[in-house]
Amino acid sequence: MNLIIDVGNTLSKVAVFQQDELIERFTVEKPDLSKKIEKIFSRHPDLDGVIISKVSQAEFSLPQNLQKKMPIINLDAGTRLPFENLYATPQTLGADRKALVAAAVKEYPGKSVLVIDAGTCITYDFKNEKDQYLGGAISPGLKMRFKALNSFTANLPLVEAREEAELIGDSTLTSIRSGVVKGILKEIDGVIEEYKEKYPELVTIITGGDAQFLSINLKNSIFANSNFLLEGLNHILEFNISR
Ligand SMILES: Nc1ncnc2c1ncn2[C@@H]1O[C@H](COP(=O)(O)OP(=O)(O)O)[C@@H](O)[C@H]1O
Ligand SMILES: CC(C)(COP(=O)(O)O)[C@@H](O)C(=O)NCCC(=O)O
């Protein structure tokens, strides 16, 4: 059994896998992460390995002397990856993005895949039919866009997302929702369409905290999988310990 820890910029996700099968999964706020890990270790004393992807400053602790008992992979620039990484600055590539590409390679070998992660940021990651990772894009996430409008202006309130966003906002609130929600949907559909012109057989996956919310209103057909990143981390761990 493997313990998978994904520390994002907003939330942490912790999961236990038995080989390829996800046994349990928790979403935790940053201050609760150490306690949750401790609980999982007491429930699963038979864990075989741990992998950690961390893209935020959040601190947490693992049980003492764990390194002596099992492999612990801190996913960084030195970790071996199950794909060819053609990113021009591999040292600065987010660990979470590597995990998403690993999942794409595992689930869709030999296919062109675009992975969209709608979390704190929206990331786009593309791997081609040769299972080479080329890169993608980073743009502000849903909450970040609402927060930015509020933070960088004098008159705009902080607005919550709603699934139904009108094209023509007839108030400050609905104008902000139109701009943010419709803006993200148009961005995602536009990016997918541009990739599809170049890679007609493209498979598109959406994941992350806002994936469900966004995927319902996208024009393009797209697979939503809320565990994609965790599956990718599990694959990187297996890839590193089984050799
Ligand atoms: N309980 C929650 N707390 C905070 N954000 C949440 C929650 N549930 C859903 N979200 C949404 O999920 C997004 C974070 O998604 P996630 O994939 O966990 O991001 P990250 O990996 O960057 O931490 C937030 O921007 C927010 O819109
Ligand atoms: C782009 C990110 C901030 C996304 O983080 P997230 O929204 O998933 O919390 C993260 O992948 C990161 O810090 N990347 C480093 C820059 C890069 O990937 O090129």
DSSP summary, beta strand count: 11
CATH superfamily of the largest domain: ATPase, nucleotide binding domain
Q: What spatial form do the alpha-carbon principal axes imply?
A: globular
In this entry the ligands are:
adenosine-5'-diphosphate, ligand PAZ
CATH architecture heading of the largest domain: 2-Layer Sandwich
Helix content: 25-40%
Biggest pleated-sheet summary: 6 strands, mixed
CATH class categorisation of the largest domain: Alpha Beta
Task: Describe it.
It is a single chain. By secondary structure, the chain is α/β, with parallel strands linked by helices. The protein folds into two domains: 1-74, ATPase, nucleotide binding domain (Nucleotidyltransferase, domain 5); 76-242, ATPase, nucleotide binding domain (Nucleotidyltransferase, domain 5, 2-Layer Sandwich), CATH 3.30.420. It is 35% helix and 25% strand. It contains seven helices and eleven strands. It has helices spanning 33-43, 66-69, 95-107, 142-151, 172-198, 211-215, 228-241, and strands at residues 2-7, 12-18, 21-28, 49-54, 72-74, 84-85, 113-118, 121-127, 132-140, 203-207, 223-224. Strands 6-9-8-7-10-11 form a six-stranded mixed β-sheet, with helices on both faces. A hairpin with a 2-residue loop joins strand 2 (12-18) and strand 3. Helix 3 (95-107) crosses helix 7 (228-241). The longest helix has 27 residues, at 172-198. The radius of gyration is 19 Å and the shape is globular. Bound molecules: adenosine-5'-diphosphate (ADP) and ligand PAZ. Adenosine-5'-diphosphate binds next to helix 4.
